[in-house]
Amino acid sequence: MSENEEVIPVAGPWVTEREIAYVADAARNAWFSNHYEYNRRFEEAFAAYVGVKHAVSLPHCTAAIHLSLAAAGIGPGDEVIVPDVTWIASVAPVVYVGATPIFADIKKDTWCIDPRSVETATTARTKAIIGVDLYGSMADWSELRRIAERHGLLLIEDAAEALGSEYGGRKAGALGDTGVFSFHGSKTLTTGEGGMFVTNDDHLHQRVMTLRDHGRPPGDKLFLNTEVGFKYKMSALQAAFGLAQIERVEELIARKREIFNWYRETLNGLDGITLNAEPQGTLNSYWMVTVIPEPSFGLDKFALMDGFRGRKIDTRPFFSPLSSLPAFADRPASSAHMPAQPVGETIAKYGVNLPSGYHMTEELVQRVADALKQILKV
Ligand SMILES: *Cc1c(COP(=O)(O)O)cnc(C)c1O
Fold it and tell me: How far apart are the CA of 282 and the centre of ligand 1, in A?
């Protein structure tokens, strides 16, 4: 490594002249009767891509999860089963609506919520399951659907990290009763900040349209609010950026898969590490290339990250179990159903996300892979 080598960032967008032209056009023209035109086109293109009836553009994915729960009337006294290992945004909205999150373990291969753990966690108070397609990997949607139907539960698919992934030929986000996406700057498709709610359910869609606009039914011009709601809207400037990105979605997903394949090829044959899984019948859009070294290397994720930092490579730790965080320390009931030795604990202790943004080239992937081998001393 030479002195003047630059730090390799962990994530980053792919911006072309198309995004810039659409945003410039929105800045000039997306006002007055045109103010929702870019949002409408972005929502239509997005719904068509995911294969759902309705899509609603929002300021972030957290809002989409909040609205999913609120639209279904979930509130105090209700329980919502969530994976213990995910980004906190998957779970914070459960607390916003006054319900209780109940943590379930994740699976060893896909790192997604384990349906057996969901079964164990189900009680008479359970109202919903939030499955998360972690780092692009798909949860066991047919099993989760079976449990949801048997107990009459709402199924929310947090596909924030899985745009373009597939399960049984269907796109991520189309497997739940509601699906939610994030367009944060680090995500597969970005609008800077942003999110999308999707559903095939007309009633949930109508509820979301009213709740996201301060309790105004769509079309209200007289400020006759029918209830107290929220204010969750995406600006036309962001929607213009998003429209350009969704028009390029095939190219975005192909590049994500190419980056993963570069890593897989160069790390192939390195014993004792696991990368993202792509089980039979699924397609992984590999939002974040993630490596889990075996405990026998004696390096937890923070030690591994230190090693990368010393080699000018930015990485991220695998999400820590939510049940282990100070944020949930006052909620002992939330992990009462967790197994004594959760699978998620080990994965979360050793896993690290490697640089996976659109700036990655085959040469940069090689530099990261060489660094990993040096750090692991293999
Ligand atoms: C990024 C992310 C979110 C939240 O997205 P925001 O747009 O930042 O609200 C939710 N869930 C998961 C799994 C995420 O990775």
Answer: 22
